[in-house]
Amino acid sequence: MIALGGKMIPCYTVQRNLACIQRIVGGVRWTSSCRPAPLLTASPVRALIDDKISIRGHFLPPRCPVTVCAQMQSDDGDLWEAFAHFNTNLDGTVNLTRDPSVGGSYLGCEPMGLLWGLQPAPGAEKKKVETPYVMLMSLLKGHVSPSERPSTELAAVTAERWYMAPGVRRIDIRQNGVVGTLFLPPGPGPFPAMLDLWGMGGGLVEYRSALFASRGYASFSLAYIGHKDLPGPQHRINVGDPYFKSAFQLLQDHPQVYRDRVGIIGLSFGVYLTLRLANHSDIKPSCLICINGPAGSNIKLADADGRTEQMENDQKYWTYDDQGTVSFRAVSLPANLSPESKVELDHLTCPLMYIVGEDDLSASSIENANLIEETLSAAVKSQLFTRLSYPGAGHLIEPPYTPNSRASLWSVKPQKLVTLWGGHLALHAAAQEDSWKKILEFMETNLRH
Fold first, then answer.
1. Is 235 annotated as catalytic?
2. How far is CA 197 from CA 21, 56, 68, in A?
């Protein structure tokens, strides 16, 4: 019993009457006895990084402003955030698959905009593929910028984004001097496979290989520079052609791999290594995928096997903007590549897909795609070449629904360098989604049939 107005009233009566009182804030009725509490849902709540998810808000007042915010911590502990402003529909819902954002990190109807719009993401990469990204998504009252001022949270939900599907196996490889990580799909195999080569950032980048294995392909991510288990010094490439051939053959010879169904994928300087390896007469890949990289090098080779001297020899081609941010784009212009380094592709017998980001500020991708196409045409092999070209896309075209950074920290020593990658957020995201679909189709055609 509760004393109210001099009378004793049963508690449940007070609670029932309070539940029927509508609280009006700023002219919008946010709660009532007829409407459940606001709800935010994400489906599925556990998915691979390249799967779409559906994000919806329910039980809201009609035609009211709301903000949907996504937050995620990177492996380094940095907080990434994206948000979008919506106006609810007459039925009191908001559906990111259907409804346009009217402000925030992106505009228009972009079902995955909260994921690819995450910022900041300076040079970020997923280092621990065995754990998911955990996305915290919040439904907020009004059109707000969450990081700028306090806001009222109406509902929240978490979702997990994985690179490794259940049952995928991750195997460290340190064999005959070869350093890398092998990912195998669930099951006994054998599987078609990809050798995975990245750029001059160095180390061992695993997430693309993990995702390939999640889609049914064995994939071997190979280190070749800047790794503690490779010969030093770490600022230059100290392995040559025999190293890359050994890695390809190691993958071919694995008992759970179809030896005649092995392709190679390279990004940035990894494109040059991909082409160089594929042009050896005793290496027979089933397909090549090249993303924004050169067909040669202007880095002076220390020997015929491809080992390099100092990596800074190309600095005369570096350009800087008004903020001192460096672009490496001119380094790989065909005119600046040493003639002896340009891969002739005379031994190439397999299909080659080249992916171009037309806003690439780190490599001369359009010019190198032209050079490769001309080289294959001269060798009467133009039927092997496929080009995908994306306006507004930058250098780092990666798996879809992941954020892009137009510039990021490249090095701290001997000097701090921030480098330009390029890419406009929405156009780059569209390129990643479309190119990933076509990469998987290309692999399906050339590795499974």
1. no
2. 63, 38, 37
